[in-house]
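Folding Task

Wanted — backbone structure
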Amino acid sequence: MQLRSRYRNSSPVIGLTPLIDVVFILLVFFMLASSFLDWRGYEMSVTVQDKSSVRASDTRPAIVRIDGNGAITLNGEGISLDKLAAHITRDHAGAPVHLQPVNGAKLQSLVHVMDVLGRDGIKNVDLIEE
């Protein structure tokens, strides 16, 4: 007696409709789960100043230098990135902040400093050269 399998001659049918449904559901999920407008940006503007027209100000600016090793100094004193914004807010409230990358400073270090300052509400930030 020879037994025949029930499924031997039938070829498997893969339905395309459930696959499309799953892809569509995943697409809708990722569209709703992601937010495209929540990017944190740092507003920058470029101003060109004539050095002869710079006038003296009563407030002493906070000069933040970033060297090639990523070390940060605030008015010549070494400081960690975690404490930078707090020190500027406490000691130089309302004063302009000058970021001064030294030759060899990495752009990523500069962006980290700008990000920390912007996150902590320090607005008057300039990028100056040596």
Summary: The first strand starts at residue 62 and ends at 66. The chain has a mean pLDDT of 81. The two ends are 96 Å apart (CA to CA). Helices lie at 16-33, 81-91, 107-119.
